[in-house]
Every structure is written in C-alpha cells, then in structure tokens.
Amino acid sequence: MAEKKNKTIKRAKVELEYLTGDEEVKRLAFLREKWEMDRVSDINYATEQGELKGRKEEQKEIAKKLLEENVDIEIIVKTTGLTREQIEELK
Fold it and tell me: For the segment 66-77, what is each residue's pLDDT rounded down to a tens digit?
C-alpha cells in the first residue's frame, strides 16, 4: 500500500529486485563465499597437520628418553604409539 503512495519506496523496491535478481551477482556472491570457506578449511587443515607433527616429535623425544633408561621396546611402543621400526631408528 505504501508503495502505491510513495514513488521513492516503489523505486527502491524495483532497484532491490534488480540487484537481488541478477544471476551474475548471485554467482559471484556464491563463489566468494565458497572461496572463504575453502580458505578457512585450508587454514584448519594446516594447523591440524602442524599439531600432529609436533605430537609425533614429542613421542619420539619420549621414546629416546625411555631408550636411554633401558626400558623394554614393547613398553615404549605401548606408551608412545610409535612402531617398533620407528623406535629402532631412534637408537
């Protein structure tokens, strides 16, 4: 009802429909949103991989200390989660 009485509101509505109805604008907005989600995903993946690498290094350091204390390799395997081969390489 207000549209019929106010030309400014009517023009604004036409402009809004034009802007939101443009397929190219929608496609660009979608691509921008996808790019941002991919970027966040990549950052999370890189962070996770860095944390995993840090944990593996920590496990190796613990295994080295246990080897220095002459702890049985089977106990080191169970304690650190490293394989027997990985522990043998640390000797």
Answer: 999 999 999 999
